[in-house]
Design goal:
- It is built from nine helices and no strands.
- The protein is mostly helical.
- Helix 1 crosses helix 8, helix 2 packs antiparallel against helix 3 and helix 4 packs across helix 7.
- The longest helix has 27 residues.
Length: 198
């Protein structure tokens, strides 16, 4: 039983830890100390929902209707490009951490949800891949594997979001934020291009 749980957690971590749009956003919000509890909660709940859905067999439905992933692919690419433009605009006019205008909780919540649910790779990783791996554990252990994968997600987003808060004091320089925003913009553009070309 514990072997399935640990395997689920390590597999979930291996898929979630890769740097992507969602992780970059969680890191940025953690550094800014802005609504990080909401961001972490949305990311954890989204992953848990999708992992449970995949374990329940939704992965087979997604595989049968690839056009759903195609719509998500284009919507996700458009959203990532918009996010990249915003990051480049922030990099062109950087400000210190304390000087940046705070975003509303609603705006942060909407961004976290979009970065979670408009990325087809999230569905492939959580619903299809983790769901398939969970069901390979057999009827007795599939939910143990899924629980481990969910635990991996909870661990990762908690460490990423709240661990980033420790960096906030170091990142008061507008010059540092210019590099952070430019880096996030480049990452978002690369991810958008990869989505379009995939």
């Amino acid at each position: 039983m514990w072997t399935s749980w640990i395997t689920g957690m390590l597999t979930g971590l291996a898929l979630i830890v890769a740097i992507g749009a969602q992780n970059a956003f969680v890191l940025r919000q953690g550094i800014r100390r802005e609504h990080i509890g909401v961001v972490v909660a949305v990311c954890m709940a989204g992953d848990a929902l999708l992992i449970v859905g995949g374990t329940s067999g939704i992965g087979a439905v997604v595989t049968r209707f690839p056009e759903a992933l195609e719509v998500l692919r284009w919507a996700g690419a458009a959203y990532l490009l918009w996010f990249a433009v915003r990051s480049f605009m922030a990099a062109a006019n950087p400000s210190a951490l304390a000087e940046q205008a705070p975003r509303s909780k609603h705006s942060v919540l909407a961004t976290a949800a979009a970065l979670t649910f408009l990325n087809p790779h999230v569905y492939l990783d959580t619903v299809v891949l983790l769901g398939s791996l969970a069901n390979q554990q057999g009827p007795d252990l599939r939910w143990t594997f899924a629980a481990g994968a969910v635990a991996g997600s909870v661990l990762w987003f908690s460490v990423l979001g709240y661990g980033a808060r420790a960096l906030a004091g170091v990142l008061h320089s507008p010059r540092t934020w210019r590099w952070i925003d430019a880096g996030i913009g480049v990452l978002m553009m690369v991810l958008a291009v990869r989505l379009v070309l995939h």
